[in-house]
Amino acid sequence: MFLRKSLVLTALILAGLVCLYAGDITGKWTAEFDSQVGVQKYTFELKAEGANLTGTAISRIGDAQAQTKITEGKISGDDVTFVENLDYQGMALRIVYKGKISGDEIKFERTVGEYGVNSLVAKRVK
């Protein structure tokens, strides 16, 4: 009985540590990628609170810069999702991000409304 309880407790502790490590996304991340509207540069300022993610997306397209709150953010293990509701030249765009955290990188696919999908890699600012 003692061995069984010990094994269960050890498994729970290890699972918790994996979740804590994998979800370590809090901080500043940068990305640069080519899109339908040209090269885009992003800074993501992210804050994890348990399985919830909040923060800000700061985008630069050419000379235009926008700062948008991140909504609907979720973290599950090393998977992350969130939404950026961007106002691009007076046009509201819902941009859905789905990514996978791997150390100091997040590999994202983002769906920009009905306009297409971009792949990008965000790197942690140290």
Task: Give the topology.
Blueprint: H1 2-22, E1 27-35, E2 38-49, E3 52-61, E4 64-76, E5 79-88, E6 91-102, E7 105-112, E8 116-124
Antiparallel strand pairs: 1-2, 1-8, 2-3, 3-4, 4-5, 5-6, 6-7, 7-8
Provide a concise account of the structure shown.
The chain is an alpha+beta fold and 126 residues long. Helix content is 17%, strand content 66%.
CATH superfamily: Quinohemoprotein amine dehydrogenase alpha subunit, domain 2
Q: Strand share of the residues?
A: over 45%
Shape: elongated
In order across it, which strands form the biggest sheet?
A: 1-2-3-4-5-6-7-8
Helix count, per DSSP? 1
Q: And the CATH topology?
A: Lipocalin
**What's the rounded overall pLDDT mean?**
86
Count up the domains: 1
Beta-strand segment tally: 8
Task: Explain what you see.
This protein is α+β, with helices and mostly antiparallel strands. It has a single domain (2-124), classed as Quinohemoprotein amine dehydrogenase alpha subunit, domain 2 (Lipocalin, Beta Barrel). It is built from 1 helix and 8 strands. The chain has an 8-stranded antiparallel barrel. The longest helix is centred in the N-terminal third of the chain and has 21 residues, at 2-22. The chain starts with a helix and ends with a strand. The model is unreliable at 14-22 (pLDDT under 50).
Q: What are the main properties of this structure?
A:
alpha+beta, 8-stranded antiparallel β-barrel, 126 residues, Lipocalin, 1 helix, single chain
